[in-house]
Structure prediction request, 63 residues.
Amino acid sequence: MFLRYPGKRVLIVSHGTFIGLTLKQILSTVFQDTYIDNTSLTILNHFGGNGECTLYNCTKHII
Prediction:
């Protein structure tokens, strides 16, 4: 997906299980186990072949 939209922001809305599995696949050294709350936000950044997670499972907007 990152190669399809270089330099663009992409919003993906999905179920927590799919997001968790994606995190484990993309950043396996960081995420061996994941739990995603309903309506939480997770932000991934991709730069030149490297990925990082700058926000994980944030629910502050729910309050």
